[in-house]
Amino acid sequence: MTTTTFYFKSLRNETLKLKHTFALWLTAICALLIPLLFFIVYIVKWEKLIPAEGVNPWNKFANEQIANSLPALVPLFIVLITSLIIQVEHKATAIKHLFALPIPKWSVYFGKLSIVIATVFVTYTMYYGLILLNGNVLGSIRPQLNFSEFSPEYVFHIKILFRSFVSVLGILAIQFWLSFRFKNFIIPLGVGMVLVIVGLIAARAPESIYFPYSYSMISMNPLDEKTSDLNLFWWFPTVSWYSLGYFVVFAIAGFFDIKRMNVK
Amino acid sequence: MMSQLIVKTEKLNFSYSKSKKDIDSLDLEVPKGSIYGFLGPNGSGKTTTIRLLLGLLNKNSGNVKVFEKPFADHRIDTLSKIGALIENPSLYNHLSAKQNLRIASTYRANINKDRIDEVLETVNLLHVKNKKVKTFSLGMKQRLGLAIALLSKPELLILDEPTNGLDPKGIIEMRELIKKLNKEGITIFISSHLLSEIEKTCTHVGIIREGKMLFQDTVKALTASQSDRLQIELETDDKYRTYDQLIKMGFETKKIAHEEHLLMVSVKEKSQIPVLVDSLRKNNIGIYQVTIKNNLEELFLNLTEN
After folding, report:
1. Sign of CA dihedral B45, B50, B51, B52
2. pLDDT, tens digit, for every residue of A39-98?
3. How much is the pLDDT for B185?
4. How far is A254 from chain B (nearest CA, A)?
């Protein structure tokens, strides 16, 4: 078998393993939660939320859900979802089985890592899809909110969502390695939670540019002003590059650690 | 002609921690076509050895050759000819038996679609193939684990305590299945802490204690090595008088601690037993029970219990 067949076989299996798992529900719940909350608030308190004449209601509606809510929640979600997806293996004591199969160990590791990334990506997509859907539904239920008069700034939203997505890849690789390494899910979960909280607090300090758990916050408001303007051609800020750097380093170092690990 | 060795380790060493050697200079030799029983008390290093054979643990020193090739250089090629069931079967509880097998077959190359039903039939689980594994009993899970190990028609089957969690009927079925698979040409390596299990199924045996190989040969050789002595357990109404009498007659006799009426006597052949009984009866010693002990059982205990 070739490299690609090993990889795609692994992907196929990882997808099948996710069936009927709590990890799958968690992604749906997480994607649903905030848009649902905003939807209810807009339905109930619509009178206070009517925009001024000529103001695009989408900006406030989408920005609050993207820039204000996401940065703190996504890292927590990453910690939970990576741990849950790998727990599927630990619960089945399957690492010993997988590593005794005639397949390269990297196909297991990177196949699973890819699935975690895909899951996070799907959650982002569902999240944004729901924001758009909710806005349109609101527009037809409460025409006064003016949602149907204006259209959302798709490009701006997609840019900032993608930036947020890239900014969490670093911690995703770290959490993935920890979850793979330790059977006991309390370890990656505990370590992750503490670091996420530290990251949220530290995000205001300029030094936090070196601390990947702050990147989700920073990505919304990049420290270097040159790239903070999303309308600029060059909208991919330093923090995104650093996050990718952490991702590559921890994905590879993590794999080499797992590869030579004694599977007990 | 020396038969080909499917598994061969030379001076294999491994420790989990620096303070203790878990596998100590182990030389393991599994001939092709054999049913090799790997016997040892709990914690003696059986599972550790199996994990070393499969490359799940990194050996400290020594060689592991499987199918006459160094394992480390031919990992994927070697593993494609092995089916293994290590400790508890690795099963995804939230999926059905069939889905579990499908995952295993996707990982492996060239597995025919019908093969899944075939192995389910072999382990007698075809009727529950669409049920989720979480509803399975321990014995059913063990059998499904075996089905997964059989999926790729392996040349070498490694089973770690395969009868764990099985009921007596299941144990007998497992024994039959192992013999049947062996007849089809599969070399089988079984670990167990029960001598009776090994004695009934295996052609070869290796006895391990504290990571060291104590004995390794055919089961026949093991039996033969003990056939010049018979151990008898004797229950009488007066342990001390019996003991004195037997010693007087020149029998090697041992008192068993904490047993009020039991003695162990060693005789050369069965014909000595009536002689012994007659002489005790003449001395008015009441005999309640005379039992010939299983030599191998004794040997195993002697070997493994210091």
Report:
1. positive
2. 999 999 988 888 888 889 998 999 889 988 888 899 999 999 999 999 999 999 999 999
3. 93
4. 17
Measured in angstroms, the CA of A180 and the nearest CA of chain B are apart by 15
Domain B230-304, CATH number (from 3.90.1210.10, 3.30.70.100, 3.40.50.10330, 2.60.40.10): 3.30.70.100
What residue of B is the nearest CA neighbor of A96?
B56
A263–B56 CB contact, under 8 Å: yes
Compute the distance between CA of residue A37 and CA of residue A34 in angstroms, rounded to an integer: 5
Name the β-bridge partners of B8. B29, B65
Cα–Cα distance list, A45 to A37, A50, B20, B70, B95 (Å): 12, 9, 69, 72, 45
Q: What is the pLDDT of residues B93-116, one digit of tens each?
A: 999 999 999 999 999 988 888 999
What is the interface pTM, i.e. ipTM, of the complex?
0.88
Every domain of chain B with CATH number 3.30.70.100 lies at 230-304
Query: Residue B76 has which token pair?
Result: 């994927």
**pLDDT value of position B100:** 96
Judged by DSSP in three states, B115 sits in helix
Domain with CATH 3.40.50.300 in chain B: 5-224
Residue among B16, B90, B93 whose CB faces A96 most closely: B90
| Each residue's pLDDT tens digit, B17-62 | 888 899 999 999 999 999 999 999 888 999 999 999 999 999 999 9
Are the Cβ atoms of A103 and B58 closer than 8 angstroms? no
Note whether B107 contacts A10, CB cutoff 8 Å: yes
Chain A residues close to B86, C-beta within 8 Å: 96-97, 100
Q: Which regions of B94-237 does DSSP assign to beta strands (E)?
A: 156-160, 187-192, 204-209, 212-218, 230-236
Dump pLDDT digits (tens) for A227-236: 556 666 556 7
Q: Do B88 and A263 touch (CB under 8 A)?
A: no
Token pair belonging to B80: 């494609």
Q: Determine the Cα angle at A204 with ends A201 and A208, to 5°.
A: 85
Closest by Cα among B201, B281, B173 to B38: B201
Contact at CB, B95 and A93, closer than 8 angstroms: no
Residue B2 has pLDDT above 60, yes or no: no
What does the block give as tokens for A70? 């996401």
Q: Which residues of A touch B56 (CB under 8 A)?
A: 96, 99-100, 262-263
User: Do the Cβ atoms of A37 and A136 come closer than 8 Å?
Assistant: no
Residue B245's pLDDT band, with cuts at 50, 70 and 90, is confident
Are the C-beta atoms of A82 and A172 separated by less than 8 Å? yes
Q: Find where tokens 């408001």 sit.
A: A221
Q: Which of A13, A21, A103 sits opposite B76 (nearest CB)?
A: A103
A151-155 CB contacts, 8 Å cutoff, 24+ apart: A151/A58, A152/A58, A152/A62, A153/A56, A153/A58, A153/A59, A153/A62
Distances (CA, A) of A22 to A26, A108, A143, B51: 6, 21, 38, 31
Low-confidence ranges of chain A (pLDDT < 50): none
Architecture of domain B5-224: 3-Layer(aba) Sandwich (3.40)
Among residues B147, B146, B136, B125, the alpha carbon closest in space to that of B93 is found at: B136
Residue B227 pLDDT class (50, 70, 90 cuts): low
